[in-house]
Structure formats: structure tokens, C-alpha cells
Amino acid sequence: MENTHIKQMMLDARREYEHRMGYPIDNDSRLQHYVQDRTALANAWRPYTSYREIGEVFGKDHSTVVHYCKEHEPMLSSYPSYVAKFNDAIEISNRVASRMAVHPKIKYGHVRNLHDELKTIKNTIKNLKQFQKKIELKLASRGEVA
């Protein structure tokens, strides 16, 4: 029952995300924007479920989702478009999860723990602040106000 509820949360969040983006996500395309969409959603859903269950929503195996999670930090530091997509994925997923009373699963032990979660959050904030500075500098060089 619980897995069905989590899968429905992911499907609902995906539907809302696609609506916000204005296009359906192609599960098989390697075009950068689709890869970014899948990576953003997979990382937004990771606290709620397993790699396998996320993969099922995209028609992928768990190793593909592991790859999406490994690419998260490099994408945050390289693509402003990914930062925006990840922010949307987090906001939508958290709202849908709250509405459906789905809560993140905190896993203890060597695989994933609170310290790892906190490190990921701190890295995400650091990367977002770096992007903010870059954008502010770009606007300032154009004589525009941030």
C-alpha cells in the first residue's frame, strides 16, 4: 500500500512539473533538457523512496537513477537551467507529498544518514549562492539592478 501511495505521489508531482514546464518529459530522449528534467525530479524524490521505485516512474532501471543522483552536484554547479528545474521539482514534489501525507524516509547507517543529507543541502545552498553572485555580477556589468 505504501509503495503505491509513494508512486502516485511521484506521478502526480511529475504531472504538475510537466504542466509547469509546458511539455511532457520524454523518458527515452537524451536531449539535455529532458535529462535535466529527469535528474531534477529523481533528486527531488530521493528522500521519499528508492532508486528502483524512481526508475519505475521513468521506465529506467535503478542504475540510471543512481547516475542521475551522481550528476546532481555537477549539474547544479554548471547549469543555471538545472538549478531552476531542481527548484521547481523540489517545490512541486514537497507540496504534492504534503497534500498526500507522504513523508521523507530517513535512512540510518552507512548508506545514507542525516549527515549526508545535511551535506547535500549545504552544497546545494552554496551552489545556489554562487549562481546568485554570477547573475548579480552579470546584471551589474549591464548596468541593471538585481
Overall description:
The chain is mostly helical and 146 residues long. It has two domains: 2-105, Chromosomal Replication Initiator Protein Dnaa, Chain: A (Orthogonal Bundle), CATH 1.10.1750; 108-146, no CATH class. Helices cover 73% and strands 0% of the residues. It is built from six helices and no strands. It has helices at residues 2-21, 32-45, 51-58, 62-78, 80-99, 114-141. Helix 1 crosses helix 5 (80-99), helix 2 (32-45) crosses helix 4 and helix 2 packs across helix 5 (80-99). The mean pLDDT is 88.
List its traits.
146 residues, Chromosomal Replication Initiator Protein Dnaa, Chain: A, 2 domains, globular
- Tell me, briefly, the overall form: globular
> Cα distance, first to last residue?
48 Å
Content of β-strand: under 5%
Please state the CA-atom Rg, rounded to the nearest Å: 16 Å
Taking pLDDT < 50 over at least 5 consecutive residues as the criterion, the unreliable ranges are none
Biggest β-sheet: count, sense, barrel?
Answer: none
Please state the second-level CATH architecture of the largest domain. Orthogonal Bundle
Query: What is the CATH topology of the largest domain?
Result: Chromosomal Replication Initiator Protein Dnaa, Chain: A
Q: What is the CATH class of the largest domain?
A: Mainly Alpha
List SSEs in N-to-C order: HHHHHH
Average pLDDT for all residues = 88
Give the helix level as a range of percent. Answer: over 70%
Helical stretch count?
6
Structural domain count: 2
Oligomer state equals single chain
SS content category: mainly alpha
What's the number of extended β-strand segments? 0
